[in-house]
Design a protein that fits this description.
Shape: rod-shaped
Number of strands: 0
Number of helices: 3
Structural class: mainly alpha
Order of helices and strands: HHH
Helix content: over 70%
Strand content: under 5%
Largest sheet: none
Length: 88
């Protein structure tokens, strides 16, 4: 059986209806999907915030490292400038 592609909108609608009525078989029949597909989408939906948070954390770590490097470079420039231009 070929793998079906479902739109994010359909997945959200199916999950919302499943949360509302609690019966995967009824919702699955209404939308022409298998009940196990609804359970799989629900599992993925629960895992997504964790993955999004991990990705955001990694991005922040990279950004922080870059900022530290830029600050170190700026400190060196300020040191060299202060040596060349005495402050009155």
């Amino acid at each position: 059986m070929p793998k079906m592609k479902y739109s994010p909108e359909l997945k959200a609608q199916v999950l919302a209806e499943y949360e509302e009525c609690g019966d995967a078989k009824i919702v699955a029949q209404k939308h022409g999907v298998e009940p196990k597909q609804i359970w799989a989408w629900k599992t993925l939906a629960k895992a997504r915030p964790q993955r999004d948070a991990e990705t955001a954390y990694k991005n922040l770590q990279r950004e922080h490292a870059k900022t530290l490097q830029e600050n170190a470079l700026l400190r060196e420039i300020v040191k060299k400038t202060a040596m060349v231009m005495p402050i009155d």
